[in-house]
Amino acid sequence: MKKINTLVVGAFCALLLTTSAFSADTTVKASSNSPVVVTTTPATGPLYLWNQPKVDDHQWTFSIGGGGVTGLKSNSGTTLGLDFSVGYTAQLLLPFEIGIRQGIGYSSFGKDTTLLTTKVYADWTLLRYKKVDVFAGGNFGPTYGNTPLLWSAAPEVGAHYWFAKNVGIEGRVEFPFDIGKKSEFRDTMNYVVGLKVKL
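^ that's the sequence the OP posted. Answer follows.
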């Protein structure tokens, strides 16, 4: 009986060793002869609010552009000017940018006027698709120059088209709201188109 048990155990061990050796040989051959397959993740389309990639921390932006003002009820005047901004991007639920803008312009609404604006702004990226970012936010600040001081706030929307990694085109529109004794929306739309750089 002991001889039979020894024979069975020996046969079982031999079978295990043979199977292991065959398996190892097959694995080596498969790995040496099989072509290397590289898989890539396909484009997933638009990335909405709940699927936004994080932006780089401590990233500064600079933009320069030209803009104007269009009367929504009449076209009795024109305002043209330059717009400069410095911003800082971070992550707060969504990618957002906060910064300051300085504008200088010439207005012929009513009478010829030189206008200066200094505004604090904050914008959140709501949609990111390939090279395009769509954002919305608001700004607040004074308008001054050879005109009475006027404080205003404005909701704004816009988009970036990044034709290079850190260089893009920005388009933005805003609808100013006067703050003061007569707090009311102006019958105007401000727009700016310019160049934006991530530093």
